[in-house]
Design brief:
The protein is mainly alpha-helical and 135 residues long. It is built from 5 helices and no strands.
């Protein structure tokens, strides 16, 4: 089950950083907000995105658990995402107000960076983006 949760966090990071954070920033800027006041809003949005994708992943992924558990590429992706998660969470504690949402938001951004590092460091013949059902 931990693998399914990891995939949910990774999906939340990628969706959050790629889609949700830019949308939150655009709305915040449109409303006349500055960047400093945008950080808590973005962190909150990333945290909520991650919670939603973890819940969805658990609901969808129980049947995929055994197959994904022994997948070497998935294990490597998890390693990269977990390192990014730890670095992002630690950076949030060090540089932002250490609320649960800020730490989860930072960890989510770190997980997304870890997934990006995994994809960029994988030889082209091995890169195969997972289907939604595999997340």
């Amino acid at each position: 089950m931990a693998h399914v949760v990891q995939k949910g966090v990774q999906a939340g990071g990628v969706l959050g950083v790629g889609l949700v954070a830019p949308a939150v920033l655009a709305v915040h800027k449109y409303q006349g907000g500055d960047m400093k006041s945008a950080v808590p809003k973005v962190a909150d949005a990333l945290a909520k995105t991650t919670m939603a994708t973890v819940a969805l992943s658990v609901a969808m992924g129980a049947t995929r658990l055994a197959r994904l558990h022994y997948n070497k590429r998935a294990e490597r992706a998890n390693l990269f995402a977990n390192v990014g998660l730890a670095v992002g969470g630690a950076a949030a504690v060090a540089f932002l107000p250490a609320t649960a949402t800020m730490v989860l938001g930072g960890a989510t951004a770190g997980a997304a960076a870890g997934v990006a590092a995994f994809v960029l460091s994988t030889p082209k013949k091995e890169v195969k983006l997972p289907a939604v059902a595999d997340m």
